[in-house]
Amino acid sequence: MAKQLLIYETATPVNRGRHANLAVKTGNDFSFAANVNSVPLMVAEFSQVANEMAIVFAGSGEDVIPAVLLGIRENENLFIDDKGKWLGKYVPAFLRRYPFVFSSSDEGQNFTLCIDESFEGANNDGRGERLFDADGEQTQYLKSVLGFLQAYQVQFQRTKDLCARLRQFNLLEPMQAQFTLPDGRSMMLSGFEVVSRDRLKAISSEQLAVLFGSDDLEVIYLHLQSLRNLQATAGRLGVAPAEPSAATAPEPVAP
Description:
12 strands; 7 helices; alpha+beta; three-stranded antiparallel beta sheet
């Protein structure tokens, strides 16, 4: 997961002049995400994802963020079929907000609503929901989009706070998992991090109190529980069960 935009190609600020007649036709086609094997995940989504997908941490330094693992090879999403249909039970908010996204040029002080104009459902033919009415005012649809992205941004800050504490307490370590392909070849999944069970057990009572008071502890347990889904994700490709390294991919701890 090299960058936050990932699925966005031509994110352009939404404005009345340029998009006066623009309409957006959304549906159940997720082909736009067929080539990403992970997407960012917000803390509020952990409980819905943990029973179905593996939650890991991607990035480095201050850019570390939770991610839901959607495939075990680059440029491959095992939760989308060849017709663009989503095969899972839960669709991450990162994908549900597409083709819209917030951008900021002042380190998050102000945000601008953008739309990916390359989105197949964006049109000037009146198909779907218009962004502006005949008087140039925001439609209810556009207001609902803004509300969704504002709520997403609040969760993004909460998620960044979690990651900051995980780094502060040195709880993250690299993950590696071994897979066997149908033709007998082996492959290694790496480039992500997970919470270390041993490091978590060794934290001080003061640090434990911080994690408990911020509700981070519950989130950590959901993350560890979700790692069991590595096998199920690999199974979508028809490969042998994952074999996480004991040193770098600890067994989940029951809360």
